[in-house]
Amino acid sequence: MQELYKYHSVIFVNCIDFSSSLEYTDNRGLGIMERMLMQDLIQWKDKPNKKPLVVQGVRQCGKTFLIEDFARQYYTDVAYYRFDKDAKIKSFFWPDLDPKRIIKDLGLARGKTINPQETLIVFDEIQECGNAVTSLKYFCEDAPEYHIISAGSLLGVAMKKGTSFPVGKVEFLTLYPMSFYEFFYAQNEMLALELEKSSFKDSVWANFRNELLEKYRDFHVIGGMPEVVQTWLDTKNIEEAEKKQDEILLGYQKDFVKYAEPKDYPKISAVWQSIPSQLGKENRKFIFSQVKKGWRAKDLEDALIWLINAGLVYKVECIEKPNYPISSYADHTFFKLYMSDIGLLRRHADLPVAIVFDDTPAYKEFKGAMAENFVASELKRMYGKLKDKDLYYWMAEGSAKAEVDFIVQDDEKHIVPIEVKAGTAKHSRSLTQYCKKFASEKSVLTSLDEMTSRILPLYAFWKFKEWLKEI
Questions:
Q1: Cα–Cα distance, 243 to 259 (Å, whole number)
Q2: How many CB atoms lie within 10 A of CB 293?
Q3: pLDDT digits (tens, 9 = 90+) for 18-27
Q4: Is the pLDDT of residue 214 over 50?
Q5: pLDDT confidence bin for 148, thresholds 50/70/90
Q6: What is the pLDDT of the chain when averaged over all its residues?
Q7: Rounded CA gap, 219 and 448, in Å?
Q8: Cα(126)–Cα(176) distance, integer angstroms
Q9: Sign of torsion, CA 260 263 265 268?
């Protein structure tokens, strides 16, 4: 039987029925929306000299749900304010930016005093109010005793348009769509935890390989947008899950209209629509002239930057050689574009579900693109949580070109090449060529083969950093 959790004391200011919106499913083994970023929120709460926290991330990736869950577990009172729903709240930040006055007015608006330490203050969609963003500086300097979390889906776009963040006065965390591990955990908590603590030599990886493969393929269909995942867990109906995916994709298109400059909307939409077809090419390179005949890079660069700042796409640039700092060797004009969620990519490409489970040659090229998009998203979660760290790939010069899908500058001293194979594969000619050319100390081949000392399976890629320490 499902058990419903609600906050001890919560008041919404924008007339949303909070009790119905906050229902939290906790049915062990089904529908456990556990997010790994929760640990970072707990660490923030426990800091003695914390600054206001900004949680950013693409729309519908679960920011509000995560913050609500965090508040439910660790605070007795939450004051929630959503700037895109209630214009009245914005007026509290206009007379001045005195934190004490703002706190008093916010408390009066909800009919309950905001208490330091006890009340979590949540400013949702804060990019809608520039003065509220600026006020975070004064909360940090003059009222550090208040616990404040701000969230926004288009913070990157807001900053690009001129909204100034109080540098050094706030902390940032980035939430991405659910990882494969989080997706798997939501369906089999016990096994996920066992795999997380297991070494790569443990028999559990071989014993449960079929289940991991099944869930990995499911993830290609469903992806990691929490509402889509929850719909799938609740109904096991792919049509219902696809309706949620369509709603999210439509919401992104509406964001283009609402937040972009009118002159930029057609270009943003055109770049966005071209991503599946560009990934379907053999070399995946994004070519501006293929977006629309007659358009060139200079016409579309702003549109590309908008999509990157919105968190909707990941740019993976080509490097000529793996030297430090790796960003200095990147060709900013030679790149691939991947989407932030593999399930949305499948739906955006209008790829039938049955094809994902089919070995037809007609799916071979896009199957590779899907696997690469999966790895790109997993790497962004690993390396971009606190800093928007870029991703790279390598392509050899000359007629007999070799290509390695990803090059990562690890947190330690290694620059690591990663080759992605969508099916079963034990060897990679390109990876061998790269390692020979650059005397690479470490390299990773990830495929659907069984785990060996040379192969990290795609369904175990969440343990990539741990794998690097063992090879």
A1: 24
A2: 6
A3: 332 333 333 3
A4: yes
A5: very high
A6: 89
A7: 14
A8: 18
A9: negative
